[in-house]
Amino acid sequence: xKNKFKLILFLVVIVIIVSSLYxxxxxxxxxxxTKNETSGEIEYVSIYSHGSIKETDTxxxxxxxxxxxxxxxFTSCISNSKVHxxxxxxxxxxxxxxxxxxxxxxxxxxxxxEQIEHDIWEFQIFKVSDSYFVxxxxxxxLQSPCDFYEYDIANKELNLIHRFDDIDVIGLxxxx
Length: 176
Description:
Elements: H1 2-24, E1 28-36, E2 42-48, E3 53-55, E4 65-69, E5 74-79, E6 82-87, E7 92-94, E8 99-100, H2 104-113, E9 119-128, E10 131-139, E11 145-152, E12 157-165, E13 167-173
Antiparallel strand pairs: 1-2, 1-13, 2-3, 4-7, 4-9, 5-6, 7-8, 9-10, 10-11, 11-12
């Protein structure tokens, strides 16, 4: 009888823990307006903390700053069957084409991107309020993967939120 009670209690605790993890992992991280590079189709999507994505109603994009890295900012090489990226020089331009001085946060974003294990083809940084997001287009044979990251300023790391295919981010909004 005592063992049966312990087993039931253990199962209840496990269910509570799993439920709380599932509920907390469904937090909305960001809403995006994406444009398919091939078809031109516009989509409004919400991305949640557990990585899922769903279409959402249209919304007004927040004002954001967009910085684009020069294509020569990174070089890549293959070592031990893995692609390694290395910063050449941090060269950023804003959406008007003006050169932008990099700061500690931008340097941290670039240093974090050195951990990406594919050749970086295009690199865009979005700053909205005090949050930073990064769209990295990868050179992967005949595919066009576009990885969307959130930059964790405290830990100086890029956290992959979602992998898209063949898109541009043209608007975004973070939840209040």
